Amino acid sequence: MNPCSSNPAISAFIDHLNPSVTFGQAVVSRQETSFEVRHSADAEKDTHQLELLTPRDLRSRISKDAAGRFRPLQSAPDLLSGWKARASSSADLWEILNILYPGGVGDWYANARQSQTTVSYRDFVNRQSGMFRGAAKLQDAEAAQVANACCADQHCIKNRLWDISGNMDHHSIETPRLVCLEPCQILLELARRQFKLGQSPSTTLELPEEEVALVLVALDHLSKVPRGKLRTGDLSMPMNPRRMNLLQERLQAQIPRQTEKAANKIAQWTIVLPYEINTGFSKHCPPASL
Ligand code: SF4
After folding, report:
1. Measuring from atom 4 of ligand 1, which residue has the nearest CA?
2. In ligand 1, which atom is closest to the CA atom of 158?
3. How far is the C-alpha of 211 from the C-alpha of 251, rounded, in Å?
4. pLDDT at 238 (0 to 100)
5. Are the C-beta atoms of residues 135 and 171 closer than 8 Å to each other?
6. What is the pLDDT of residues 263-278, one digit of tens each?
7. What share of the chain is helix, strand, coil (3-state, %, to 5)?
8. Given 182, 191, 252, 276, which is the most exposed site by the fewest CB atoms within 10 A?
9. Residues 180-193: pLDDT tens digits?
10. What separation in Å is there between the alpha carbon of 88 and the centre of ligand 1?
């Protein structure tokens, strides 16, 4: 049986290869009798410069980032380059793309063909149980801050198509793209942590606006610098980049708008934060241990 006939998703994907398509950080191109997949950073490289990997070797190669850390999210923008993989059939191509981006082609195709493919934050967290139930107690604005921090381009290259309350119109993407149809486990964990943090004692800071701006710039910088061996999926670490971005979001939300500022002649901003966020360190994890 022709595999394409039983898999309309890969068939539709292949239809877009004229002669190539960028999918996430991968470039897929049509060759004379096969398909080739390589990293988009290697798009212009001579094929002899790239190591040919079997699907099994590819799976192993992409499981870690350049610093040797496990990649908890395949759609993180840290896919290693320097390789190529060949597919002699649509079924082989399907396998390779699912190694790189599990469910990626299927999700794109489902979204392009159907109207009800996304799951909102509310629907997703309402069906959680156990320790993740706290995620359902975040207000919409807080959940949006979590999503903005977690799904920022520097952490994930998927196009997020779900929203918090499920009111967003269907957005069909015709050209193959990595799409996100529902919150992932990392986002759920960040939301759970945020709810828990909100239950802890708060502290109030009064800072000149220039210093608040300085804190925001520092957080932005810290969220982007390489972290050595720190695992990006480990949200228990205070220096986790997603936590930095979430703190940024939360500070930003507490800053008075320019009009309010002018009307009230506010020279200092008062910011309320849970103790752990404020210090940046858990009470059980003093700075000296980092
Ligand atoms: S929820 Fe956000 S971080 Fe998770 S896969 Fe979707 S877009 Fe990426």
Report:
1. 184
2. 7
3. 12
4. 84
5. no
6. 555 556 666 666 554 3
7. 45, 15, 40
8. 252
9. 999 999 999 999 99
10. 31
- Report helix, strand or coil for 288: helix
Distance 82 CA to ligand 1 centre (A): 26
Q: Is the dihedral of CA 283, 287, 288, 290 positive or negative?
A: positive
What backbone phi and psi angles, to 5 degrees, belong to 215?
-60, -40
Coil vs helix vs strand at 207? strand
What residue ranges line ligand 1, CB within 6 angstroms?
75, 150-151, 155-156, 158, 160, 180, 183-184, 186-187
Hey, what CATH class is 118-196 in?
alpha beta
Q: From the CA of 159, how far away is ligand 1's center (Å)? A: 8
CATH class of 3-102: alpha beta
Which residue in 119, 276, 130, 118 sits closest to 192, CA to CA?
A: 130
Other Cβ atoms closer than 10 A to 5: 9
Looking up tokens 């590819």 gives 58
Please check whether residue 24 is in contact with residue 180, taking contact to mean a CB–CB distance below 8 angstroms: no
* Nearest one of 56, 58, 77 to 66, comparing CA atoms: 77
Q: Which atom of ligand 1 is nearest to the CA of 186?
A: 4
Start-to-end CA distance of the chain, whole Å, equals 57
Stated pTM of the model: 0.85
Distance 212 CA to ligand 1 centre (A): 29
Q: How far is CA 136 from CA 14, 61, 246, 249, in A?
A: 40, 37, 17, 19
